[in-house]
Amino acid sequence: MESPGTKxxxxxxxxxxxxxxxxxxxxxxFDPGMVGDSLxxxxxxxxxxxxxxxxxxxxxxxxxxxxxxxxxxxxxxxISDAQANxxxxxxxxxxxxxxxxGPGQGPGEFRRVGPIVSLPDGSIAALDAGSNRLQVFxxxxxxxxTRSFPWSSESMCAxxxxxxxxxxxxxxxxxxxxxxxxxxxxxxIGSVPALDSESLHAPALAGRLLEGTVGCFGSTIVYARSSExxxxxxxxxxxxxxxxxxxxFVPIEFYIDExxxxxxxxxxxxxxxxxxxxxxxxxxxxxxxxxxxxxxxxVIGISxxxxxxxxxxxxxxxxxxxxxxxxxxxxxAVLLASDYPLIAVYPLQPR
Length: 351
Description:
Blueprint: E1 51-53, E2 67-73, E3 76-81, E4 86-90, E5 96-101, E6 113-118, E7 124-128, E8 133-137, E9 143-148, E10 152-159, E11 162-168, E12 176-180, E13 186-189, H1 202-209, E14 212-217, E15 220-225, E16 230-234, E17 240-245, E18 253-257, E19 261-265, E20 271-273, E21 285-291, E22 294-299, E23 303-307, E24 314-318, E25 323-327, E26 331-337, E27 342-347
Antiparallel strand pairs: 1-27, 2-3, 3-4, 4-5, 6-7, 7-8, 8-9, 10-11, 11-12, 12-13, 14-15, 15-16, 16-17, 18-19, 19-20, 21-22, 22-23, 23-24, 25-26, 26-27
């Protein structure tokens, strides 16, 4: 296997799982030019691989346990490891620059580090999904600020200095929370399907309906919901810009079992109980990103759904592209292998 920083000429062959392969089938090779007839231009987004990071048996910054999130800060690639609760920074050539964070509940520490974003001043904001906190680091890795909040969240993106969280707030049914980093003000927007139940398990079901991801671009928030297979674009006020369905998505009926908890019935009629406890299932949304005029929504069992960011029009479904982790101004990072995390970075080409 190549070491971090090694450039690979041409288009690399993936040794890991694509979205489709994660569900027990599909091709495990990745050729950015190999797409369906409905999406002939998708491959032009990617170019020659720049570098890759991650390997078995290497140093701490080379062996990732579980990818919590990734972001580009300038030309640097920043990766959070949710298992080690560490954040690693690599330069534009794939060389390790520094690591920060660690397990704990103090400044700069995490119980479960998740998504990370770059702020306009070059600082790095990291979501601690294990303790409902935000940790902010300077470019040199020193902790700058800790901010707690009342909602639980595992998805975050940024509109400039406004951080956008998807999560359950105890005081509002709105699922999306905008935190202005300068003023510290919070505005909650959006909605989820109403619950017609007074069961003790209804709160857990409400949490399950919130699952999905958010992505940000320009002044628009894209919210992809696992429960309904819907993708909604909202402005900062919560007004809808467009809404689209995920092709091939089969809505799953939620039900309440008073003795055992909340579950859902799969399309074949088989029941699963307590699936809201962190299990990945067909139809769960893995990522929402925008790159070069494309909204990319990764869905287990359906692969990557590609939408027009202005209208929500379906551009195609790509069954070959691995999970997108981060999109920069001119680069994209994708997850090539999930059994041991292997990440590749590709330059983005004009479309």
